[in-house]
Write a structure and sequence with these properties.
globular, mainly alpha
């Protein structure tokens, strides 16, 4: 009998300034993640995401995280 649920774990580090192709592939990954979240196909979610982005984008993400009750650390680089 096949398992009803499976767990997937992955880590990644990528310089997205090196080429647009990597950014597009990660966008596809995060779009797929969004879809399975939106369709309620995920029963448990845990993770850490570290990114370097424009200050305005980081502030927007921080506000969304605050709304979720998720604490975020923001630092200048």
């Amino acid at each position: 009998m096949a398992a009803v649920e499976q767990r997937i774990e992955f880590s990644f580090t990528s310089n997205l300034l090196a080429g647009a192709d990597a950014a597009d592939r990660y966008a596809a990954l995060f779009k797929a993640l969004y879809m399975v979240l939106d369709e309620r196909q995920i029963s448990y979610l845990q993770g850490t995401l570290k990114l370097v982005a424009d200050a305005a984008a980081v502030e927007h993400l921080r506000l969304l995280l605050d709304d979720l009750g998720v604490s975020a650390t923001v630092r200048d680089v």
